[in-house]
Amino acid sequence: MIDKLPELASFNQAKGIEPDQSLDLYLATTPRPINLFTSVESIQAACDYWAIIGKNQSDFEILPVDNPIQEALRLKNPDAIPLVMHSATDPILFQRMFADGPRFGQLLMSQLYQPTSNHESPSLFVVGIASHGLDIISKSPLSTNQILKEEMTLRRREILGNDLITNEDFRHILQSSSVDRIIAHALGPNGTNISQAMEQYINLLGVAEKTELIVHPKGIEPRTYAEIASKQIRDGVIPIHMECAVYYDMGALFDERPEEVVFTDHHYMLLDAMQLASIIEIEELTKKGRIRI
Length: 293
Hints:
- This protein has helices at residues 21-29, 43-53, 68-74, 91-97, 101-104, 131-138, 146-160, 167-175, 193-205, 222-230, 250-255, 282-286, and strands at residues 3-4, 34-38, 60-64, 81-87, 105-114, 123-130, 181-187, 211-216, 237-241, 277-278.
- The chain is an alpha/beta fold.
- It has a 5-stranded mixed sheet with strand order 3-2-4-6-5, with helices on both faces. Strands 8-7-9 form a 3-stranded parallel sheet, with helices on both faces. A two-stranded antiparallel ribbon has the order 1-10.
- Helix 2 (43-53) packs antiparallel against helix 7.
- The longest helix is centred in the middle third of the chain and has 15 residues, at 146-160.
- It is globular.
- The protein starts with a strand and ends in a 7-residue tail after the last helix.
């Protein structure tokens, strides 16, 4: 008999707000001070994000630190919104997602694409918000200012530059009649988070009828199927591949594909509820001090 263990962790969510640009819109209109904790390496991305939000410098403080998550959790100001920023290729993001993520709040609530030298792809930076900030947002009215939203979209376009395509551009390409077939690669096995996310993505774009969805079996990881996809390019055929934003080998995947647009679009999806089970009693497992999953 397999005994169910208690749920080990759950991610806090703000009521009434979805990831992506709705957070940006809230930040642009809130009267509360914003503290963005980031690594020194991501300072320029943090400054670009501040420019997109459009706040005065006195209302939006960028704090370069060694451990953004830890410092955001230590923030004492009850009125401030604590944010963190990480590069998607930084292995720390993978390491901290499930270690700090549940008690922190949400590590993946917004994003910024930034041009990369000597690479066809922009770099991707993700913005998270601590539970304290999520609680504040849940109690606050959310802006629906469409004009402001369009202004922030234009500012994103200016930062990305004219040489790189936007998310919207890429979606229009996939939807266009010049693309006869899309080959979509996703991490398996079938039914897991990435396979669900890819299916949602192609349905959202309305391109399911011309898409071949390949959910790879266990053992075929993103760096492998990215290589497979690179060999499938034909006239009228676009191969795409999807990875989790906290994929542990994202840095290597990005570095070894300088002639491809590795970060061209994103799709937010809530994780499945997950529960661990064991034939050994939980009391016995905890005596070991560490559980290998």
